[in-house]
Amino acid sequence: MLKINFSGQSYDMPKEMSLLDFIKQNAKKESKDTIAAKFNGQEVDLTYIPETDGNLELIFTTTNEGLEILRHSTSHLMAQAVKRLYPNVQVTIGPAIKDGFYYDFDTEHRFSEEDFEKIDLRVVKVLECEPVKKAKKLLKLKVDLNGEERQIISGIAMHYKPEELVGKYVVLVANLKPVTLRGELSQGMIIAAATDDDSVLNLVNPGELPTGSVVR
């Protein structure tokens, strides 16, 4: 057991438990507005699994710090979706700013509101998850899209264990052409946000909305 100091109290935390599971168990009300955390003063995502005793602080979407993380994640979400729809687009910069976020794209194509309306983002629930054989970075997920089961191949195995994803709600780009990756069919793309060096990666969390809900 680890000793975790959180919200003025000391808690026993089982080893191998993620911060997200700890928060759901001990601060269920606050978990809905939590986007990240600080463990011993270091910013971490909610899938982080502590290896030592420590102090835990939550970062909420209702704070300036949390809002910046949310905007940064959303800008990456948009960039990934645009890149999949327009493979020749060159992604440049896309910081969070005071009133939101933006992304610059190097392309001859002139974007319009209609282009962004083509990106169909949907809430799905992970039903099953397992590693892709001979591909250490890939996971194979079976997801529920409003009663329709889809198989998704996602390069998130360095950041998530399969068992951590089962039951999780995530965001899917649902209208991409199916592709084959390492011999496995992938029917869409799971949206994630990451730091520039990929040391931290977070799946975009839509909350427990009904599967098939539109993300906009």
Give a structural overview.
With about 220 residues, the protein is α+β, with helices and mostly antiparallel strands. Helices cover about 20% and strands about 40% of the residues. It has a five-stranded mixed β-sheet with strand order 2-1-5-3-4, with helices on one face. The mean pLDDT is about 85.
Sum this structure up briefly:
This protein has 216 residues and is of the alpha+beta class.
Count of separate DSSP helical elements: 5
Kindly estimate the percentage of residues that lie in beta strands according to DSSP.
35-45%
As a whole number of angstroms, the C-alpha radius of gyration is 18 Å
Distance between the termini: 41 Å
DSSP E strands, number? 18
User: What profile does the largest beta sheet have?
Assistant: 5 strands, mixed
Mean pLDDT, rounded to whole units?
A: 84
Tell me the helix content. Answer: 10-25%
Q: Could you give the order of the helices and strands?
A: EEHHEEEHEEEEHEEEHEEEEEE
Model regions low in confidence, pLDDT < 50 over at least 5 residues: none
The shape is globular
Task: Going across the biggest sheet, name each strand in turn.
Answer: 2-1-5-3-4
- Backbone structural class: alpha+beta
